[in-house]
Structures are given as structure tokens and as C-alpha cells.
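pls design
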């Protein structure tokens, strides 16, 4: 069993970041999540950690507890909502032995979409609204508008970088397509009309700048599609040239995957607002 204990004050945002990181590290695209509020001392928390992993469905559970707020989250990698509900019954019995508490909110991902920060906030709100419901098990259903699937096109000759981006972005629920040269990238762009293009500048067949100009020249989707340049090129003049061509963001290699995911999310959320 792998467990994580965070004893300092954490917001729903910080808790989401930690849970998200655990899910990425597990290499799973499906998970169950149980969230509740409970006051636990160290002995109670350790007992919960030991007891919750006794079933097959929760053997690899990741337990996150924030003592200051009493926010408890149990992440169940590779488990569906039905399995999560089964585990929540055991968690309910275990927690009731430590005294009265509030409700438990459960969710299954991607059954209701890949987990997002807004989901964690919504689940926390459900707990607040049902604070007096001792042991009630509530099922969180993600709003339809949060389930939108974005399409991302990656254009890069570096296969290692492509595979890293592909695996992490797919885990976030995006549809990802890859091209290893600029010409194939433009062909895929015309066929897919993606929401975001992530491209290197150093490309064969059609250079990165030419690819950007071609995309921006497309009347239908080229003007609204976000373009994120991910490149080893660190020359300020070239970076400025990219923004002059209409690039949305520029990240230098080597890059932080977590930072890149945050920037991708920000760009796509902006596209939704502008739509």
C-alpha cells in the first residue's frame, strides 16, 4: 500500500494537485475517489490506512488526510464507481467507530469524466451541504459541460517528448494525435481541426514557423486554435517572433510536465470562454 499524509493546511486546490499527482504516478486512467471530513488522531488514521487496504478493490489505495480541516480523501487507482461504493461502505463502518461525522462523497473517473479541480471543489461543497448527515453516501455526478473532450495535436520529431506528452495528456482526458514532421502536422490539423497544437520549431518537411503561419492562415479553425510552442530554442528574438505570429504560449525545453499541463488547461479554458 502507498499512503500520503499531509498535515499542513490545504485548500481543495492543493488537495486536487496532490491527488492528481498520485493518479499520474499510478499510470492509471480510471480511479475511484472517496472524500469526507473527519477528525482523526494518528492512531485512528493509521488504523484506517491498514483496514481500508484489506479488500482487493482498495489494496492500492492512496490515503490523503489534512488534519487542520479534517478533509480525508481516498484514491482508488483502477477502480470503477461500483467498486468505490463497495469500499465506501467499509470506510463508513470504520469511521463511525471513531464517533459521529459527516457524509461521504464518492465518484468514479472516467465514468463521469477525468477528475478536474472543479470536481474537487464541488465534492467539498457537497460535504459542507450535508455536514449533518452522519455516514450518508452521496454520489458525485460531473456536470455535462465539464465533460467536454478537447483535441490536442502534438508536432515534434522527439519521440520521447511525444510519448511523455501523449501519456500525460490522455490521462487528463484529452484526445491526442501526434505528427513527427511539419507537413504531416499540417495534414492532421486540416483533418482534425484540433483545439490546441503543441509544436516544436525545429521540424523537417515543413518548419515550425511555416507550420504556425499555415495554421494561422486557415480561415475556419486556424484563427481560433491555440498554439503552444515547446522548443529547445531559447533565443529571445525567435520567441518574440513566435508571439508576433499569433502563438498562444511558449515553453522552453527541458520542461516541467506539471507546469505544461497547467498551461494547456489554461489555454483550453480560454478557448471555451471565447467560443
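designed seq:
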Amino acid at each position: 500500500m502507498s499512503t500520503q499524509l499531509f498535515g499542513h493546511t490545504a485548500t481543495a486546490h492543493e488537495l486536487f494537485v496532490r491527488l492528481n499527482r498520485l493518479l499520474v504516478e499510478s499510470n492509471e486512467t480510471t480511479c475511484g475517489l472517496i472524500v469526507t471530513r473527519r477528525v482523526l488522531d494518528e492512531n485512528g488514521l493509521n488504523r484506517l490506512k491498514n483496514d481500508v487496504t484489506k479488500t482487493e478493490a482498495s489494496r492500492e489505495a492512496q490515503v490523503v488526510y489534512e488534519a487542520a480541516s479534517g478533509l480525508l480523501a481516498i484514491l482508488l487507482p483502477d477502480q470503477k464507481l461500483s467498486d468505490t461504493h463497495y469500499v465506501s461502505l467499509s470506510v463508513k463502518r470504520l469511521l463511525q467507530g471513531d464517533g459521529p461525522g459527516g457524509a461521504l462523497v464518492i465518484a468514479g473517473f472516467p465514468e463521469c469524466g477525468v477528475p478536474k479541480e472543479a470536481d474537487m471543489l464541488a465534492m467539498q461543497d457537497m460535504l459542507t451541504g450535508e455536514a449533518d448527515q452522519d455516514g450518508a453516501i452521496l454520489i458525485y455526478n460531473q456536470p455535462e459541460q465539464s465533460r467536454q473532450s478537447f483535441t490536442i495535436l502534438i508536432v515534434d520529431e522527439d519521440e520521447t517528448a511525444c510519448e511523455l506528452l501523449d501519456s500525460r495528456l490522455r490521462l487528463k482526458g484529452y484526445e491526442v494525435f501526434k505528427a513527427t514532421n511539419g507537413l504531416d502536422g499540417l495534414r492532421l490539423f486540416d483533418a482534425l481541426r484540433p483545439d490546441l497544437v503543441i509544436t516544436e520549431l525545429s521540424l523537417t518537411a515543413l518548419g515550425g514557423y511555416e507550420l504556425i503561419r499555415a495554421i494561422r492562415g486557415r480561415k475556419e479553425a486556424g484563427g481560433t486554435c491555440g498554439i503552444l510552442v515547446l522548443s529547445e530554442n531559447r533565443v529571445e528574438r525567435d520567441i518574440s517572433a513566435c508571439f508576433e505570429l499569433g502563438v498562444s504560449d511558449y515553453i522552453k525545453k527541458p520542461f516541467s510536465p506539471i507546469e505544461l499541463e497547467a498551461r494547456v488547461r489554461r489555454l483550453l479554458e480560454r478557448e471555451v470562454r471565447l467560443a
